[in-house]
Specification:
67% of the residues lie in helices and 0% in strands. It is an all-alpha fold.
């Protein structure tokens, strides 16, 4: 086990344990352990299309428990199979953590995961080298949950009741396994399309597969999806959109611990971090080049930048606060801190969202219309988290291109979910992928000497 492998596994275990401890602490403020498990059961039996808030469905403690138990299981799979923990695996792991607050749960993630494993076994390849792809495939958890619980029942579905039918089980298994076996090939094709300029490569690949599955299961069959499930949660209603202090303390603990640990392990210095900040992020692997000690520093500092942005938009605009999807968005935004993201190549993307928001606000005020969205509207909070995957564009072409990418991504981020029905959780990555296709085509036309070839 090399140093990076060990550090990544320790980081993954640490995050899982923090989530479980957070679940236990918050359960003491609500309904205790009994309420935690009752809420988790509600999460497990709920169809969860984008953006189903698990804080509202099962409660805050249950959502943290769901994230903790799923991430701990992923860590155990990596350890027990003796798979090498890479920077790509860490990114996939972080995305699992993120989406366990709004769409993934311990029941709906396994059919696609198993499908990916079966694909590599069939190809006679070592599946242990591709566990990160299996983790990414869990993004189709909402589709699995939908066909398992609600799709075969239709109008007979009752919120909060486990209504499993034989046809639902068969559909969930067949569709999940089939999607899992298709996804590895789609990932390679998506990388060729956006040429490495969208770090959330799975977003474009899975989005295209999701478009087909949604069209076939719903539009082709003349059906309409029912949307997210929302259960009454008196405790949640009583505190609003979760305790602001609790969420901030949690992320300060995670990012602060990573920063301090990286600083100490890096010889109590920031040596190498200045060089990392000069990286474009395009086809980069910070962990291999600089080591995980420097990556932990980057994760901590970049994480604080994301957290500050989220707090500022909540403070100055009307929208959601620390809901389940918001907490998930912060984890998602930092997923590629060891593979391409850092403060220098992402700030301009945040600025692009702010620029578009100010433009829309100005036009609406001039026309006397209500402002349709703000930077703290849920779709835009999650959209900007995944738009940071366009960091390589800003890194290679400069901050102006980063701003432009942020504007384009913000303009389309809330429209793409309707294409796949919300049954694929990497919607922000899908938007970022489409943005990359648009922006890179224009940039390579004007800067042909920077064109990427051979991907």
């Amino acid at each position: 086990m090399n140093a990076n492998d060990k550090a990544i596994k320790q980081m993954c275990l640490g995050i899982a344990l923090v989530l479980l401890v957070a679940a236990a602490i918050f359960s003491l403020k609500s309904d205790g352990l009994e309420g935690l498990f009752q809420g988790w059961f509600k999460i497990l039996i709920s169809p969860s299309p984008l953006m189903t808030d698990y804080f509202r469905v099962g409660g805050v403690s249950s959502a943290f428990f769901n994230a903790g138990i799923c991430s701990l299981t992923c860590w155990l799979i990596v350890v027990l199979t003796k798979a090498r923990a890479t920077a790509s695996m860490l990114a996939s792991y972080m995305l699992v953590v993120a989406h366990c607050f709004y769409g993934m749960n311990f029941l709906n993630i396994w059919p696609c995961f198993i499908g990916v494993i079966l694909y590599y076994v069939h190809k006679k390849k070592n599946f242990r080298d591709h566990l990160h792809i299996a983790m990414l495939s869990m993004a189709f958890g909402p589709l699995v949950g939908e066909v398992l619980f609600r799709y075969p029942i239709g109008s007979g579905f009752v919120v909060g009741q486990a209504q499993i039918t034989p046809i639902g089980v068969i559909l969930a298994a067949v569709i999940g396994l089939a999607a899992g076996m298709v996804l590895p090939g789609m990932l390679e094709g998506a990388m060729w399309m956006h040429k490495g300029y969208n770090l959330y490569n799975g977003g474009l690949a899975f989005g295209l597969v999701g478009c087909f599955l949604y069209a076939f299961l719903y539009k082709t069959m003349g059906l309409e999806s029912s949307g997210p499930v929302a259960l009454d949660n008196s405790f949640y209603d009583g505190i609003g959109e979760i305790n602001w202090r609790f969420a901030n303390i949690l992320f300060i603990l995670i990012f602060g611990t990573a920063l301090i640990a990286g600083f100490i392990k890096n010889g109590k210095s920031l040596k190498g971090y200045k060089e990392l900040l000069e990286e474009t992020g395009h086809l980069s692997n910070f962990a291999d080049k600089y080591g995980m000690d420097v990556c932990l520093i980057n994760f901590g500092l970049y994480g604080f930048m994301v957290l500050i942005y989220m707090n500022l938009v909540m403070l100055f605009t009307d929208g959601v606060a620390f809901s389940g999807p918001t907490v998930g968005a912060i984890f998602a935004a930092t997923a590629f801190a060891a593979v391409g993201q850092h403060p220098k190549n992402t700030w301009s993307i945040f600025a692009g969202y702010v620029a578009l928001s100010l433009f829309v606000m100005s036009i609406c005020m001039l026309q006397g219309r209500a402002i349709p969205w703000t930077l703290s509207t849920q779709g835009y909070i999650n959209g900007v988290a995944f738009a940071t995957g366009l960091a390589p564009i800003a890194g290679r072409y400069g901050w102006r291109s980063g701003v432009a990418s942020g504007i384009v991504s913000a303009a389309i981020c809330t429209s793409t979910a309707s294409i796949h029905g919300g049954f694929m959780l990497f919607n922000g990555g899908f938007s970022a992928g489409i943005t990359a296709l648009i922006v890179i085509s224009v940039l390579e036309h004007h800067f042909p000497h920077m064109k990427v070839r051979g991907i």
